[in-house]
Write a structure and sequence with these properties.
Helix content is 36%, strand content 20%. It contains 10 helices and 12 strands. The protein has helices spanning 25-43, 61-71, 103-119, 134-137, 154-160, 163-181, 212-218, 223-230, 261-268, 272-278, and strands at 3-9, 19-20, 23-24, 47-51, 75-82, 92-97, 125-131, 142-150, 202-205, 243-246, 252-254, 292-294. Helix 3 (103-119) links the parallel strand 6 and strand 7 (125-131). The longest helix is centred in the N-terminal third of the chain and has 19 residues, at 25-43.
């Protein structure tokens, strides 16, 4: 059975969260959560992921925990960045509830903290802490709240301004979750790889005038698929700057010794005729080692 991960990017909508050095917490944490979701789903088997919000919308604390509880999530990860009155405050810290928590909750915090320390080696490690935060107290599963650097510190903010760094934070957060569950990595046939198969896909940021119909047509998918991937309750209500997850596009395979079109069709869930037509093959029995074929 899949492990259920509930990712909760803090704040949103009229609640900007911490603000400093030209940044808003609500924007940073939404990116981190989205990148973490995509990294987990792309690289690991046996995991289902939901987010408390997929766009710049306000969600109350009670709704966040209620949604996670009703879904039956196994873990709850609340994602934040820090702020302080002193501009010198710096570093990473994470929290679990300061009440009676299970060993599993402590194990989750330990796993995440170890991974996040790898990202923030050049910053102060402020330690593993405990607090009476609503999302930690009212969630009925192991829950951790992360505080990734101080938006009010100039050096911390410079780190957070780089999208590549937000991806590093997200990836190590995802790895910490995966290690806690002991998730299996996806096999080369389903995981993106330079040497085997390379799917496209990714995310799309909604622009003014966009509709789900337009976005689906542009990216060669369907409105229903976008609704499913992004947990959209009303297809007519998407917002500018909302980040949408896109389905994977064409998948390519580098032919290895022993490969046949029949084997590839079975491996990737396609048909021999589809592979023949996609690659304009004259004879499906004549494929060469090292040849790059579209297989899905």
């Amino acid at each position: 059975m899949s492990k259920k991960v509930f990712l909760d990017p803090g704040h949103g909508g009229h609640d900007s969260g911490a603000v400093g050095n030209g940044l808003k917490e609500k924007d940073i944490v939404l990116k981190i959560a989205t990148y973490a979701r995509d990294f987990l789903s792309t690289n690991y088997d046996g995991v289902s992921i939901r987010m408390s919000r997929n766009s710049d919308t306000f969600v109350s604390l009670s709704k966040r925990t209620t949604d996670a509880n009703n879904w039956g999530a196994n873990v709850y990860i609340s994602i934040h960045v820090n702020a302080a009155s002193s501009p010198s405050a710096t570093g990473y810290e994470d929290y679990i509830w300061n009440g009676n928590v299970s060993q599993s909750t402590k194990d989750l915090q330990n796993s995440i903290h170890r991974e996040m320390a790898k990202v923030f080696k050049s910053f102060r490690n402020r330690g593993k802490k405990r607090a009476n935060f609503h999302v930690l107290r009212e969630s009925r599963m192991s829950a951790v709240l992360t505080e990734s650097l101080f938006i009010t510190n100039q050096n911390d903010a410079a780190f957070l301004k780089k999208d590549s760094n937000l991806k590093k934070i997200a990836e190590h957060l995802a790895i910490g979750i995966a290690k806690y569950f002991n998730l299996s990595k996806k096999s080369p046939s389903t995981q993106p790889s330079n040497s085997n198969s390379v799917p496209s896909g990714g995310t799309y940021t909604v622009k003014s005038g966009d509709t789900l119909t337009k976005i689906a047509k542009k990216h060669g998918t369907t409105v229903d698929e976008l609704v499913r991937l992004n947990n959209i309750s009303n297809p007519n209500l998407i917002r500018v700057n909302q980040i949408l997850r896109l389905p994977g596009g064409p998948v390519y395979h580098i032919v290895k010794r022993g490969d046949t079109v029949s084997k590839l069709a079975s491996q990737y869930g396609s048909t021999q005729n589809q592979i023949k037509n996609w690659n304009k093959l004259k004879d499906i029995n004549l494929i060469r080692v090292g040849e790059k074929l579209r297989v899905k």
